[in-house]
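Allow me, if you will, to draw on your knowledge of protein folds for a short while. Thank you for your consideration; the sequence and its tokens are set out here:
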Amino acid sequence: MTDRYAVIGNPIAHSKSPDIHARFAAQTQQDMHYEHLLAPLDGFLATVQDFVRNGGKGLNVTVPFKLEAYALATALTERARAAGAVNTLKFDGTDMLGDNTDGFGLVSDIVRNAKVAIANKSVLLLGAGGAARGVLLPLLHEQPARLVLANRTHSKALDLAHRFAAQPRLKVCTFADLDDSFDIVINATAASLASEVPPISPRVFAAHTLAYDMMYGAQPTAFMRFAAQHGAIARDGLGMLVEQAAESFYLWRGVRPETAAVFAELRAQL
């Protein structure tokens, strides 16, 4: 019997996850079906329960349900606990394992695809919301020389940093405090959704800087254009999307798909 998987969210029709996982399944010869699953804003739990009753094996979770998925899980991976949010659920009998593959996807795209090492580098992470929270632990595991978490309000960044109090390499500041350059600058704010740029000094960029926007689209984001204008090498988050999906697929199926061809196909469709 074909195993069922889905991506759950509201809205959800725009998600490319079914395309990605269909390609992974074909590549690895897995008997599975992956679909969009729209949940009412007040009906996440009921929708998940119905999905499981009807043979569902796993879910990717997107906006706005990652915190509800975290609360629903009966077991959590280390990276899910660190993120305080879940983007992947695996159903095994009565257990619901919650994971967060966003940080893995980001690190994989930077290190393996962009071929930029994070170890011993200076890293700036812009934003202290859910996107930043999901990637902090995997970034720290790469052993950067320093990781600066910058946000418009200092208190919000400080609250997030307190989850990682044992990490001496993690520093906190406001956007206005930024005045020196970094090897890697990651935009985890939602500014690109409004075609805006976080209010940061262009001095954070140098000729060698990788400027990474978690958002992606057919054209470079406002952040990517701003970074490129000041000498940085700009990259969007499409590779992160594909790599985090591959990690979810591996969690569910025990097989790690190749991502390069899937990334190329998605890029050509944008």
